[in-house]
Every structure is written in C-alpha cells, then in structure tokens.
Amino acid sequence: MASRVAKGPPPPAAAKTGTDVAEAKKVKVAPVTRREFLFYIWGASIAMILGQSTGILVWFMLPRFREGEFGGVFTGDATKIPEVGTPPANVPAGKYWLSNTEEGIVALYKVCTHLGCLYAWVETAGRFECPCHGSKYERDGTWIEGPAPRSLDRFTLTITLQNGTVLTSNEIGDPIPVPDKNAVSQFTIDTGNRIKRPGRV
Fold first, then answer.
1. In the chain, what are the domains?
2. pTM recorded for the entire structure
3. Shortest CA distance to 174 belongs to which of 191, 192, 145, 198?
4. Which of 76, 103, 116, 153 could staple 80 via S-S, CB 3.0–4.6 A?
5. Distance in angstroms (rounded) separating the CA atoms of residues 45 and 24
C-alpha cells in the first residue's frame, strides 16, 4: 500500500539579491537608426539657419551709426552755416564741407571723385582743389578741370526754418536756396545718404 505524503505549503522563494534587481531594471535601448540620425542633423541645421537669420535681421534693423559720427546724421544750427561768399565750413567728423553758394546751401562729401583723395578749399583761388592729381571744383562742388570723372558727391541736407518750413535736398542734391541764414532754425546732414553727381559735361 502506497504511503501518503503530506502536502504542506510550498517552500519559500529564495530572496533576490542586489545583482538580480539591477539586472531586472536594465532596459535595452535600441541604437539610433540612420533615418533618426539624419532627422536630428536636419533639425539642428534648420535651428542654426533660423538663429543666423534672426541675428542678421536684428543687425540690419538696428542703427549702425550713431548721430554725430560719419555714416549717421549731423545736426547744426544757423550759426554753423557760413555766409554767402565766405569759405565753406569744414566738418572733419562728418567728412563733409558745408557750403553756402549763390544758389543755396549744399553739403559736399569730402572725398575727390577721382581716386579718393581729400581735397581742400583754396581761398586764394576761391575753389576746391585736390592735391593728389589736380582736380578742381567750384564752391558748390561742380567739376572745373582735372582727371575727376564727375562733380563732387553731396549728402542729403534738410533745413528747418524758424517758421517751421522744412526744406530737403532733391534727388540730385541741388543747393537749397535760403534768402537769409538767420531764418534757419536748424539743419541736418545725413552722411549715410550720399548723392552721386552725374559725369562731367
């Protein structure tokens, strides 16, 4: 006769060690596929292009020249305008001459149109002369003689009169007629807006 074996509770499971727990927590990470890699590179490239574009846009929109330095706007009052027939006013900081002619007031770029030398006012001759190659110009910058290909370039000039009237240079920078300089409240010269004169006749 077969003996009966008493059934009891199952034996307790062996306790898990720290190594077993660490092994259970390990997660396998799939390697980056070629498609995912290219997607990440593409995304980074787009981000860099957008960043550069934003930087260029901000740089373009911000004023590059402050008022009172070459490339910016110069402001003056009537006391800085020379009388008609007197030597033009030299403004080295703005690289321009302020000349009051019979036809009106004009701001002339201080660089010769030949090879870029700095010309000067010669009082004894009553004209501008370039010391480099002998080009000569009238008080309003009109070419007289010499190798220069055209008359002197001009800057945009805006004159505000005491009565509030505002006069601005036309597209070719013709002198602005002002009967009396004492009627001028102030003027501004935009050295960032150079007007190239046509070739000599």
1. 73-195 (2.102.10.10)
2. 0.65
3. 198
4. 76
5. 39
